[in-house]
Amino acid sequence: MAERTVFQSISQKHVLCLGPRASVREAAGVMTRANCGSVLIMEPPHTLLGIVTERDLMTRVLAKALDPERTTVREIMTPNPVCVPPQTRVSDAVLIMIEKGFRHLPIIGPGSKIIGVFSVRDALPREIGTALSQAEFNEQVNDALG
Questions:
Q1: What percentage of residues in the chain have a pLDDT greater than 90?
Q2: What span, in angstroms and rounded, lies between the C-alpha atoms of 34 and 30?
Q3: Which CATH architecture has domain 6-145?
Q4: What DSSP character marks residue 84?
Q5: What is the pTM of this model?
């Protein structure tokens, strides 16, 4: 059985976006209403500036006692997020997430258009297992080389 691609696996094809001047409270509201763990920060027409995730809200806003009404998403976003093309295999996307330490990957289609966001929640257990095996192998190789 051929492995699914990130585009085939995403449960939500609608992409949540906000402008960089939106407040953190707006971002939390948008994410809550959509039951989504991230929102992309974009400037017109289609420029991806960053991503804000649930973890960002916790570690960069709540833990630092910032005012969610006065703090903009630009201040707390992860700028220039790693993106993948739609044909990326799910296990490869999960491997990227494991190695880089995050759980959301924007999917970039033709013309640099954002066509979705892959979340680790979109992966099946066997796909995660494949990625974990590869990450362990990569770690062993790196240890042997260096």
A1: 71
A2: 6
A3: Roll (3.10)
A4: B
A5: 0.86
pLDDT tens digits for range 28-58: 999 999 999 999 999 988 899 999 999 999 9
Strands 114-119 and 47-53, bridge-based pairing: unpaired
Please say if the pLDDT value at position 16 is more than 80.
Answer: yes
Q: CA–CA separation, 132 vs 95, rounded Å? A: 7
Q: Which residues face 23 on adjacent strands?
A: 72
* Inter-residue contact 130 to 108 (CB < 8 Å): no
Contacts of 83 (CB under 8 A, 6+ apart): 48, 105, 106, 107, 108
112: left (phi over 0), alpha (psi -120 to 50) or beta: left
- The SS3 assignment for 51 reads strand
